[in-house]
Design goal:
Order of helices and strands: EHHHHEHHHHH
Oligomer: single chain
Radius of gyration: 17 Å
Shape: globular
Length: 172
Amino acid sequence: MLQSAVLRKTKKGADELETRQHRLAGRLRNALIMVDGERDVASYLEQAGELAPQIERYLQDLLTAGFIEVASGSAASTAPDEAGASAAAALPARPSASLSIEDLRERINVYLSETMGMRAVFLRSQLAAIDDLVALRGFIDATAQAYATTAGSQAAQLWRDQARALLEGNDN
């Protein structure tokens, strides 16, 4: 992501903070809240310290989903169109265009069943309510964090990586 890009909330982002219509996961919502339209990406990452890689991913996810945008006419970006194109080029790979959100939810649902069995009943009900990719990624991160308390951090990280790979179309 372009470090000098100044980010701001879009109307969709402001609406999400007001109504919770898209049910963003807590960490994504927190990242959305911190976007103020004045600071550049580098300042958010510096403030995050060792959590910078996660914050950068959350900002990229929010940008991809249209909750935030690169501020046009910002001092940090004299060519806003170019900055927007650079930021978009730095985004992670999108899932296969042939997979709908329903298909992606089903992949994660099956994976939950295979890895957690009956313990995942509540998680599957939460999963059923997710209707966009950003929320699905947030769900995976939150589930992995919760899983760490019972399975340990290495197992949780492996679970998260495998679930993310399912989203990206890497079934290997």
